[in-house]
Amino acid sequence: MNVLLIDSDPLFVEGVRNFLSSQLGHTCRFCNDIGAAMLSLKEHVPDVIISEMMMPGLDSFDLIDFLKEQNYDGRIIILSVEEDTEARIKALEYGADEVLAKPLALELLAIILHKMSVSLQASRELEILRKDFEGSLERRLVSIKKELAELQQEYREELGISGMGVYSESMRQITRLCLRLHQDRDLPVLISGETGTGKELIARLIHFGEDNIKLPFISLNCSAIPATLFESELFGYERGAFTGSNREGKIGKLEMANGGTLLLDEIGDLPLDMQPKLLRVIQEREMYRVGGTKRIPLDIRFLFATHHDLHRSVRENRFRSDLFYRISTVYIKIPALRERKEEIIPLAQLFLKQISAKKHQALKFLTNETSRLLREYSWPGNIRELQGAMERAYLISDDTEISPEYFSFLLPNSPLNYDSLVKRQLFLEFPVQEFDLRSATASIIRKALSLHNNNKSKTARYLGISLNRLKRYLQS
User: Fold this and answer.
1) What is the greatest pairwise CA distance in the chain?
2) Which of 216, 253, 409, 456 would staple 260 via disulfide (CB 3.0–4.6 Å)?
């Protein structure tokens, strides 16, 4: 170590200096007073400073103040006369690491210097690691901020107000068409596609565009309204229009959407007797409430969505042809997710980002094996099923990377697959008084382990939990 010795006694300095250099192998420099030491410290910073407490002019307390200003990270040993107990306590409180009595016991000094050497090396290595970590963290944060900015720019370019990811050429074409339709409120649009493909998201993109407009967007699911209530739900009614009606009357979805957009979802389930009434509204752009005589002009963008084959419905006389041709002025067919497999992994990662942001938790990623599994799956529930799978996997996974075991429920033979589950029902007898859930869980895990010859990895996959969670169950 490098040692700076500060003392006004030349004989004492010479003796200690020789001991430190020849006996302990330290590099030792010396100064006769505090002022000279302060000048020296500006050029050479030692590991340890050994200073006499009271000296002519500046004393060791002035030295400690100076070292604090310089953010000195070495060790300070103060030398004091043995009888001056109060001064020794004051020096320790002021910031000295050790206070030794004069005459100095060199063996004790050697032991203290060795301990200081070990401590100083450890603290400096820790500081280097801390700075490396902080530097690495800062660089990573800068990188993440840059990535987020790039992602946000990509999302602004690729996403409508709906927040739907667009990662295939077919969906990019649909997105561009939606943005063009956003500029023309007079054209009715029919959106078709399987359940879960995002028909309402496309409708919202047509309505909101890239402007984030504040006009109303009203959605009505035709399959969710009883046929007897559909007319009043759509048109509203006047006071006393029928028995059991609201005393003050009620406005319908058409009036709610006036000035904005009305989406009639599952239009294929619209009752036959309502179809000519809706056709008239679309053509005339006006309506009357049930039981009312006042004409209400309408300024509505009409959007329609269905998972049915309306051509077939027309042929089977379940849907009026004149209404079909009117609502399909513009027709958008959303391909199933299995027909645009290139979107599966980007959408999955997008959902994971959204989930982590919503929960304010760490971002998770898919392993290569998981990505391969997701791409090979047919996704009969389309994007809605994919989103649900991501939410489930995010919830049960303990690791940053999500491995295939968290998607075992997608496999045909998985115990969490519905078709397989009905064949493997689990029956438990519940006592009347109390039920020991911990014991029941332990019993289930023991039986699962026995079923798989105590193979923990296979058991974890069988139970649909992570290996780490299984180990915690076994340790509890």
Assistant:
1) 118
2) 216
Q: Is 31 helix (H, G, I), strand (E, B) or coil?
A: strand
Sign of CA dihedral 134, 138, 143, 149: positive
Question: Sheet holding 301-306: strands in order across?
Answer: 217-221, 261-265, 301-306, 189-192, 330-333
Token pair recorded at residue 299:
């300024």
Tokens of 286: 């006006």
DSSP string, 225-237: S-HHHHHHHHHEE
Read off the pTM.
0.54
What gap in Å lies between CA 94 and CA 63, rounded to an integer? 11
Spans of the chain below 70 pLDDT: 82-83, 148-164, 211-212, 240-247, 411-435
* Structure token pair of residue 50: 């050994």
Spatial separation of the C-alpha atoms in residues 74 and 123, rounded to whole Å: 10
What digits encode the pLDDT tens for the residues 301-347?
999 999 999 999 999 999 999 999 999 999 999 999 999 999 999 99
Domains of the chain, each with CATH number or no CATH? 2-125 (3.40.50.2300), 169-335 (3.40.50.300), 338-423 (1.10.8.60), 426-476 (1.10.10.60)
* Interatomic CA distance for residues 108 and 116, integer angstroms: 12
Q: What is the pLDDT of residue 330?
A: 95
Provide CB contacts within 8 A for 159, sequence distance 6+: 165, 166
Which residues in 186-289 belong to E strands, given as ranges?
189-192, 217-221, 236-237, 250-251, 261-265, 286-287
pLDDT of residue 272: 93
Smallest CA-to-CA distance from 253 within 298, 292, 320, 293 is with 298
